[in-house]
């Protein structure tokens, strides 16, 4: 089966993304928008979950219904900014487990530096959704997914809000079996490795650290 690379052009996502990009959007609104966009992204990224038939007794008869066929999910945010996407995802899949991977980009080299990794014990039985709002050079996502693959999960999908062409290419090349979902594919990276036009530093804007 061919892997999915999808830009989510739903009007609700695009509308919220436009407000998110605005440099005048407050920290509180930014955080809420990241949550809302993540929820809508997870809605789309879970549309291929397998289902099974069941019968449910309603007050008026028997309904032939469908439920999700016992799939176990895990969300793995790349700290810090990816954590901002987890609440939205958990709103839709409250039973999912959450792992954490801590990676920051060295400001000079732009290379990823890993400082933390804690994943669910049974990740080998789970479909994993890795979250990070920004895919810039792709170094952080490529590294995080490499770490997760060491634990042999059933599948991996990567969800970001904005991708740069450079990051998308790097991720596609390094992990040809990972589905990629994003809300916006931007123009290029600037000399400091920031996505243009992007939205600035996602972690700083979520947590108000600048
Ligand atoms: C940001 C972002 C990604 C990474 C993307 O994190 O959240 O993890 O940069 O860049 P890349 O694709 O070039 O690797 P940052 O390094 O700012 O760390 P933070 O979330 O702790 O602020
Ligand atoms: N990390 C961010 O938070 N923003 C960018 O534009 C690039 C990397």
Care to describe what's here?
This protein has 210 residues and is α/β, with parallel strands linked by helices. 30% of the residues lie in helices and 33% in strands. Strands 1, 4, 5, 6, 7, 8, 9, 10 and 11 form a nine-stranded mixed β-sheet that branches. It has a two-stranded antiparallel sheet with strand order 2-3. A hairpin with a 5-residue loop joins strand 12 and strand 13 (195-196). Helix 1 (11-21) packs antiparallel against helix 2 and helix 2 packs across helix 3. The model has no long low-confidence stretch (mean pLDDT 97). Bound molecules: 1-O-pyrophosphono-5-O-phosphono-alpha-D-ribofuranose and uracil.
Query: How is the main sheet built?
Result: 9 strands, mixed
Number of strands: 13
Radius of gyration: 18 Å
In this entry the ligands are: 1-O-pyrophosphono-5-O-phosphono-alpha-D-ribofuranose, uracil
Q: Into which percentage range does the β-strand content fall?
A: 25-35%
Helix amount: 25-40%
Residue runs with pLDDT of under 50 for 5 or more positions = none
Topology pattern, helix = H, strand = E: EHHEEEHEEEEEHEHEEEH
What distance lies between the first and last C-alpha atoms, to the nearest angstrom?
44 Å
> Overall pLDDT, averaged?
97
- Derived from helix and strand composition plus strand pairing, the structural class reads alpha/beta
Structural shape: globular
Tally of contiguous helical segments: 6
